[in-house]
């Protein structure tokens, strides 16, 4: 009786008709403590270990050559993704064509560029002059010197862009197939051409499926650009390699490159989140809250609980 009376008095004091008993999760607290302890030990080891050379990291973090490498990395990412998206849309439409030759050609392109490593493709384009010293393009009077035409930057753009186009074609094709076929049939009944249907009806609805993996591919492309260092393109990693080849500070310069990669990918991740949220407006009635909204809701909830508990 005493316990029941106490719970009744507590409910009356809080103004509720029921008693709220907070659930206890000792396993959660234990796992959190273990993770915090391990993270603290790792952080302490990293900070106190002089072999990391944090003074050197701070010295070269804003180096001019590192900054130029970042610009080259961002440029390569943007150009390669632009090429990949355009090719992805074209070859995705070709894969869905009723013409077996067109469909087969698109399948061969996708299969070749997805089936060979991107590093091999980069080296292949870089050494294209060994196969075709003179590029004529089948046009009489056109004779282009491959050694001058295929520079390291050109080889990097061709290798990354064409490889990305193969992956983007599968992403776009999946997005197109996710749109109900009745949309296409309705457009055909209204007399809209196939191209207009694809551009105005299908692709806008397919963007909800296309955008999330495209954001992941963009982040992946940013990191894949590090491979072009093997053909001497002065991107971020190659700029760091040039410096530590001169100073022999290998680990600190690799940390510098890693920190910049982490910063850029974090920014791209935030942009991807808001872009996905925008394209989800027509598909979800309640959009997921943004990090700022989640933070406001957290403090608002705890402020309300504290005021409620403080009532007498």
From TrEMBL:
The chain crosses the membrane at residues 29-47, 67-94, 251-275. Its main location: membrane. It comes from the Bacteria. PROSITE patterns: ABC_TM1 (PS50928). SUPFAM superfamilies: MetI-like. Keywords: Amino-acid transport, Cell membrane, Membrane, Transmembrane, Transmembrane helix, Transport. NCBIfam families: HEQRo_perm_3TM. Belongs to the binding-protein-dependent transport system permease family. This is Amino acid ABC transporter membrane protein, PAAT family.
